[in-house]
Records
---
Amino acid sequence: MKPLRLKNCQRDIQASRDAAGVPHLQAANWLDAVYGLGFLHAIDRGTQMLFSRSVAQGTAAADISGSSELLETDHFFRRLGLGRLGESEAEALSENTREQLQAYCQGVNDGIAGVGRTLPIWATGFQITPWQPSSVLLVGQLLSFGGLAVSQMQNERLLIDLIHAGASEEGLKELFTPHLDDVDFELLRQVKMASQLSDDALEVLIDLPRLAGSNAWAVRPQRSASGGAMLASDPHLEINRLPAIWYEAVVRYGDRYVMGATLPGCPLFAVARTERLAWGVTYMKGDTVDFFVEDCRRTDDGVWQYRREQEWEDFTVREEIIQRKGGASETLLAYENPQGVLDSNPDERGPGYHLSIAWTGNNAGSGAAIASWLDVLSAEDAAAGMEIVRECTQPTLCWVFADREGHIGLQSCGRFPIRGGGHTGLTPIPAWDPANHWQGFHPTSILPRIYDPPEGFVATANENINPPGGPMFCTQILPGYRKRRIDERLQQLDHATLNDMQSLQYDLISLQASDLVALFLPHLPEGKLKERLSGWNFSFHPTSQEAPLFQSLYRNVLVEIFGHEEGIGWRRMVYLCSRAGFSGMVVAAIDRLLHQEKSCWWRVRDKGSMIHDAALRVDADAKITWADVNYFHFTDRYFGSHQVGRLFGFNSRQYPMPGHHATPFQGHVLQTAKRESTFAPSYHFVTDLSTDWAATNMPGGPSESRFSRYYNIDVPRWFSGEYKKLHGQPEPDSPPA
């Protein structure tokens, strides 16, 4: 262990780094410990925190760079009012929670003062202001909306775009049944659509902690070789932009400890364990954001109004001045009412139907979520932890727990609107009918939960978690390939070990491929394609030559069946199926439909003949491997896209990405003209509650400095599947897990 020099530290704490650079913090009590965590975040990830806060509060174009994409994201977040409730929410926190946040913020500010101006701070001319409790809440808002709810919003907007573009009404209704059964297609085609976010601006959002998919499971003692409960968790995010999203830490205070993945800017442990309890989280994919259709008009004196039944009311107009580094400031007018905020300025598109956006996180009380993250650290067992996190208002998550006594559980959380008129929330509905408005929020007592299931394990992987006959918390249903594979493997393990848990986290078998190859084979022409896919084990290992063959066939089938101009259109279909991890709602709906015998999509042409014709366009002699098509480069999130970054080696060599969107190791890469985006395990964590250690690895390291040996120190472990040990109790250095 290497002691850390804590310049400007104002409390009695000690810190050191292990061989992997993970900081180990020792404090007398929790308030000193949370101060120390803030201090460590500041010295290792200060730039990441400060830049994230600027993005969240919509001042990035003034603080960081006057680039067009940052200006666009400033407009986006300021229109939505992401940071408007920060101060009032901080004031509304309990005294206990506020005391902890103040200690954390003191640690952040003392750490930043001790470090001084980092290279990115100096290069951008960024002006540092103190970290405050409202800053913590703002980073939480950024995670909840920019990293999660925005993906729901973008998929809902994608559906509106398909309707606007004239895609087959009958075909879309069948594809997304029953969500579109009562949708007024003609009304939606009349809506004046705001411009979509540009690719550059979307990539700023992708750069946020965005749980595109994750895995977590727990095993009871009767299925464990050690006799202790075990937990495994691996949240999936973009992983090719360094520094890594997560910051590992081991924190000891008094006779207690907590260790795992923390989020710089917040005193929370997303995936972690204490001496009594372990937890991991996955994105529930809960629908907490809705579009409404507003009927708008402008009065003779220039006032914009919205209709409620036959009456007209004035919008509340909020004026936002957006500064731009090196350029003139811009004025944004946000038009609001109790149902939401218009997605554009009606002056630019004129009277008529406009979309408005509503998000539950913009309601009072959302800031209290941080209390759940703090309180769970002191939970004594799984049942207590589940009760605490059930009240977490945002983001929508599935928490998996395992405790020292052998209990396991799953608890979902989030604030879900009670939607009026029986609507699901997937498509916009008229706001002029008060019956369509939100009618409050569902009680947390009805949120899905599982405790000590008889099968001896519990797992979640972004599957459909809607209760039978209950509210539709999730509207963008994924097919559950990863969940099925995890359940399948856990069912086979009567005496599971940590090595089994690690192997499952690196599992590359696709049940999507297994299902669809069985569907495709009877219709394939005799020859090499059929022979090669018949003998494939459905692994998306980088060396596999059948994986790219299947992917080529799959995309050709989708374009052949759904890409005609009376359907979705071939250009849009190519776009969608090349972004399977990003437009999962559409691809998942298509996968379900492909297994049906009858459909309007193959009413004119037989499904089997279309699969046959698609196969004729596949090069069955191709010898390329999955690594040849599914690869990526690590790059620095501050300098990687700039000439100075390329000059000083901020971009890595090409790496193969194992897996794809339907394998437990979700390795999805999106190649665009300007950059690569990835979704993959951002942290691997497994632990046995009969011990006091955890095995981990991550695609990165503790430091945000490209010139630090701890910048990407864990990357070789992440690729090889090797795990390191984190010890809750002080122990000497030990060999890999």
Note: The domain at 511-628 is CATH 1.10.1400 (Penicillin amidase (Acylase) alpha subunit, N-terminal domain).
---
Amino acid sequence: MAASRLVRWAHTLACYQYKIQYRPTEEHSNADVCSRYPLKIVEDDDTDVADVFFNTFAETPIINFNSVSRLTRLDSVLSKVMKFVLEGWPSRLTKYQEDIRPYFERRTELSTEQGCVLWGSRIIVPEKLREEVLELLHLAHQGVVAVKALARSYVWWPRINDDIEKMTKKCGACQDSQNLPNKSKPHPWKPATRPWERIHVDFCGPVHGVMWLVVVDVYTKWIEVINMKSSTTSSSTIRELRKLFAIHGLPVILCSDNAQQLKSEEIVNFLKSNGIQPVLVPTYSPNTNGIAERAVQTFKRAMEKAGRRNENYEKNLANWLLHYRNTPNSVTKKSPAMMMFNRPTRTLLSLLDPLTNRPDNLDRYLKNGEEKTLRTFQIGERVRIYNVRTDQWYKGNIIGKEGCKVYLVKSLSGNVERRHVDHLVRAVDLGDWPDSVEPCEHENTHVPWHKPSAFEPEPDQAVPIINNPEPKTSNIPQPTIDLSLKRPKLVAKQPVIELIRQNPSDSMIGAKSNTAKSTRVSNRLKTNVERYNYFKLGGN
């Protein structure tokens, strides 16, 4: 290859004529730095190459079949084996020949070659060379299986597999770089028996440029996500945990990872002073705190999906927490809100259920005489309105009603206000009130939670009309009531669900199939009513 290159250069340079002229070194002005930069002086090493070869390779003698043959004749066991292989094996061994039993069991496969005993094609190594052979087999620091496979191709002696395993386990280099052992079976935590008994916490982020503290209740699967902004110190963590404990109470156990701010002396003293047992999971073992890690993963994915349509992460977080807390959990089969508060929290989906959105009936509150002294006003009635700021009363007219205690009043100046019945009194004087008052458009409005009374007049009877009071010469207004019509007879209308409860037989007239169907409908309505009973769930 080098000769071909020289030939190519010879052909290239043959086209030119050269004039050789000597130039001293001092006149070389085109010399570069690299060619003139002095090298560092290195002291000459007097070590001879032969010495290096001897020290490196001659320390361990080379093992070959000659050394095996020589040591086989000197080995007490292999010398007997070679004798039996050459002269013949006995029919059975005596009690003094138990040391050669492994060879006796393979006697039909043993042979000799140049003073060495062979088992098939594998040479039997004497006892004095076995350590060196093992080191030679494990020279590349392979695993146990690889070393055994390599040994099966060359050598054998009794219990060679056990010797290979022991030698590999004692190798320091292999121990320093060994693989992790098989993972142990997860040990379950002690089950929680009540809400907020054991909570798990973990930091998450940065998400949207801030850090978050994720808290999970084991019993209810309730998740709290707290915005830590850019501060995750122990003081900030204690401040947020104190706010959280003020809402849900003090837990019994608080489990966390080995984050520096979660195992500091400050936060440990805070937890112990409040009767909370801090539990730290082992280092680099996130599966021990798996419920918190799973909550962090769910929170990150939810924020990532919601952030593609709306970048307001605070709004996205509130929407996600509201829906998550009302979604039945796959483990408890109930929503975290139901497990925590024993009631579902109201969402937009609650508006679809007619049983939970029925207007309530206020008449049952009046049966016990709690509101017998409630003052009522008629549309157009003249009242005095109390001004809270000036502690004075001014004039006005009733133009509408909202609920049972809230009225729309119009002052003489024309302002329309919503006032409570406690701030209204009937006017005694007939001052400068206008002759007529126009009803407000809120006259027939009702508060959404007000349900019409169960005692309603029958449609075929008339309702007495109360006329507006007319001004008279007297100072006291006297309202005129038309008594030409009789007082209507009030008939209590019983709810349909109550009819089904009291008279289930009315809906069971007919064939047997219709009876079973009506029973199922009755039970389903009864279950839904008890399920969404506000007072049963702890309402006031």
Note: The chain has four domains: 65-174, 198-348, 370-487, 496-531.
